[in-house]
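Here is one chain, start to finish.
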Amino acid sequence: MTGFRPQFWPTVFAVPIVFLCLALGSWQIQRLHWKEDLIAARAAAVVAPAVPAPSDDAAARGMEFRHVTDEGVFLNDREIFLGATSEGGTNGYQILTPLRENNGRIVFVNRGFVPAALRDRAKRIAGELSGPVRIEGLLRLPPGGRPNWLLPDNRPDLNYWFWVDLPAMAAADKLGHVAAFYIDADATPNRGGWPQGGVTRLVLPNNHLQYAITWFSLAVAMIVIYVLFHRRNPESR
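Its structure:
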């Protein structure tokens, strides 16, 4: 490397790319630690014993993915249809049904998946639960807005929803105030087979280590190319 003299434009081009790749790799390492903590917290919540559904919204914020129980009466005529695909790739809906608790509060319950052909309640009337019921499932918090920009707008006018928006769903159902959380019902079979509960997808993808390695590798590759260019270019000597 004796007499190595970097050229101006190759240096202007290479140095920002190297620093950008290093910065992105470091960011992915931070994301890796964040995701590992999130996965551990979710795993701990899922295996914790079931508790009664929280009585206030503030308590619910620290209970996502906890098993909770609740009691009340389903308002079956107020179903909300959330567009979904089953594990097997079948298009259909997740059925969110308001549950009126004994104290009058309304909590939406995601009772599970039905294929598109069974959207009509009359085709799965056997699965409707009337009178007082007791349900168990995972407490869920809504995303607080569109989860990503690729999702279309919800269509309350068609009762077709792309993501959970509890205030808007309550308004569409003319329910007034509802709890700020909802419950994903467990996989206990319903009469008639539908809806099929247990729809919560608990596995979180964690590819941040691979992304970090990719960015760091690109930084190293850029450095190697930069050095080889100057060793082969006589103007740099």
